[in-house]
Amino acid sequence: MLSDPALRPGWPATLRWGPVELHPLRRADAAEWSRVRLANEEWLTRWEPSSAQSWAQRHTPTAYRAVRRRVLQRARIGLCLPFVIRVDGRLAGQVTLDNVVRGALRSGNVGYWVDSAVAGRGMASLAVALVCDHAFGPVGLHRIQADIRPENGPSQRLVERLGFRREGLFRRYLDIDGDWRDHYTYALLAEDLPGGVLGRRLARGDG
Ligand SMILES: CC(C)(COP(=O)(O)OP(=O)(O)OC[C@H]1O[C@@H](n2cnc3c(N)ncnc32)[C@H](O)[C@@H]1OP(=O)(O)O)[C@@H](O)C(=O)NCCC(=O)NCCS
Where is the N-acetyltransferase domain (predicted)? Predict the structure, then answer.
């Protein structure tokens, strides 16, 4: 049963710019998601939540369907916005705006990954920029937070390129790749970039 749309402004949505399209996780994405995730085990493991299950167990089409059901339930009541990234029509990653809190805070946490085959082309930052503009626009948030391990240079470069500022260090904050890991916390506020996040990226000549 669908919940009240007023609980989830800005969801569901499809966002597009150039070769990049973001859309809600689809049931039909199971096989493609499983194939891409399995092929990227080495590329992704270091940045992923710890798990008692093997990578292969966590990335079957059945596992995808279970995860999808869970996140879409949360999306229906406005707690998260889980997008798949497509580049030139191919499933190439995910951006999730999660832990959405309303009231006086109006904040969410952004997480993302891309297929190593599309990395280094600006596609991930384009996808995250689209989600940030959507979050500050139709979703109505004021703050987007990104928590990043100090070892993750590409991810820090991505958010810095989009205008996020580093606000501090959370000690042993998230259980990632088998241990509690320190994370830098970055944030972007709606008023930081009056021309929008994508607008800044384009103005800087980043494509
Ligand atoms: C973090 C991650 C998404 C970054 O992906 P990415 O492709 O490096 O990020 P971008 O889309 O911003 O692309 C930037 C790179 O493309 C290059 N680039 C090429 N054309 C570009 C363009 N038009 N615009 C911007 N960058 C462009 C940049 O120079 C940059 O290269 P650099 O890393 O050598 O500086 C990716 O490394 C990843 O999925 N890692 C594994 C999962 C992960 O770490 N998730 C985040 C956890 S916090």
Answer: 34-191
Structure tokens at 42: 């080495």
Ligand 1 binding pocket includes 186 (Cβ within 6 Å): no
The conformation of residue 49, written as its DSSP 8-state character, comes to B
Q: 125: Cβ below 6 Å to ligand 1?
A: yes
Residue nearest to atom 22 of ligand 1 (CA): 122
The answer as to whether 138 is a domain residue is: yes
From the first residue on, what is the mean pLDDT of each consecutive set of 10 residues in the chain (207 residues)?
A: 84 98 98 98 98 98 98 97 98 98 98 98 98 98 98 98 98 98 98 94 81
Cα 159 to Cα 99: distance, rounded to the nearest angstrom? 18
Is 167 part of a structural domain of the chain?
yes
Find out whether the beta carbon of 148 lies less than 6 Å from any atom of ligand 1: yes
Which pLDDT score, from 0 to 100, does residue 177 have? 98
The answer to whether position 3 is within a domain reads: no
| CATH assignment of the domain containing 182 | 3.40.630.30
